[in-house]
Each structure stands twice: as structure tokens, then as C-alpha cells.
Design a protein that fits this description.
By secondary structure, this protein is of the alpha+beta class. The chain is 31% helix and 37% strand. It has a six-stranded mixed beta sheet with strand order 2-1-6-5-4-3, with helices on both faces. The two termini are 23 Å apart. This is SnoaL-like domain-containing protein. Keywords: Signal. InterPro entries: NTF2-like_dom_sf.
Length: 146
């Protein structure tokens, strides 16, 4: 219940923020984190590997029992087999860039407002991603598309 209330407050924060203040990155450049964003070594390494198309580095940052959800509770995959099926081609082959414009860090949770630019997308994709950290690895991701 506390997590749900916390997430609700975060979503209001991100939704009410001024989207016009986001400086759009030049496509396919890394790193792309707003200067005002609090640093988080694990999530920042994840972003650099994602933007650099380094799948092995990207995968090494995830817990063996990784879970991904479309917020609030639609399971997208669980475990490394689902992770590989979802991310291997996306991370290693597609020209794309993720830009973090806002971040909240609270103990084992990192909540990012991201803009994804990709050649395959007609328009940029805006989303909020909630990362849960376990054993110093990304254990759970929850995606909320704008």
C-alpha cells in the first residue's frame, strides 16, 4: 500500500512537470542525462549500455529473476529468458537513444522520466520507468507510457 501511494505521488510530480523544459538530445548520442538529474551508478550504467548498443554490458546489470511490468501489474516478462527475448535485438541492433529528464531516488527505487528516440518510431516515446534494485542489480522495472 505504501508503494502504491508513493508511486501515485511520483506520477503526479512527473505529470505536472513542464515538458517544454526538456532539452531534446541529438539523436543516438550517449550519455543523455539532464544535468539536474541525480546520479545513480547502476541505472546510469544501464542507460549508457542501452544507448551504446552493448547488450552483454546491459544484461549484466539485471538480476537473474528480473521482472518487467506495464504499470501497474501487467507482467511483460519474468526471468532471463524473457529478458533476452525482449531486449537482445532492441539493445544490440536498433539505433535509439534514451534521455532522462527527471529522476527520484528513494532507497531501492529509482524513478526516471525518459524520452526514447528511435529510427523505428514515428514520434519520440515518453514514459516513466520505476526501477527496483535488489542485490545491487535491477530486479524489477515498471513502465508507464505517457
Amino acid at each position: 500500500m505504501k508503494l502504491a501511494k508513493f508511486i501515485s505521488i511520483v506520477l503526479v510530480f512527473f505529470t505536472c512537470s513542464n515538458a517544454a523544459a526538456i532539452t531534446r538530445p541529438i539523436a543516438y548520442q550517449a550519455p543523455v542525462i539532464a544535468e539536474s538529474v541525480e546520479q545513480h551508478p547502476l541505472i546510469d550504467a544501464h542507460l549508457r549500455a542501452y544507448n551504446s548498443n552493448k547488450f552483454d554490458e546491459f544484461k549484466a546489470l539485471f538480476h537473474p529473476e528480473v521482472e518487467a511490468y506495464e504499470f501497474p501489474d501487467k507482467l511483460l516478462f519474468k526471468g532471463m529468458a524473457g529478458f533476452d527475448k525482449t531486449y537482445e535485438y532492441l539493445v544490440s541492433s536498433i539505433y535509439k537513444s534514451a534521455f532522462i529528464s527527471k529522476r527520484i531516488v528513494d532507497r531501492d527505487f529509482v524513478i526516471d522520466r525518459e524520452t526514447i528516440t528511435a529510427a523505428a518510431l514515428e514520434n519520440d516515446m515518453e514514459l516513466v520507468v520505476i526501477y527496483q534494485i535488489k542485490d545491487n542489480l535491477i530486479y524489477r522495472m515498471m513502465f508507464l507510457k505517457q
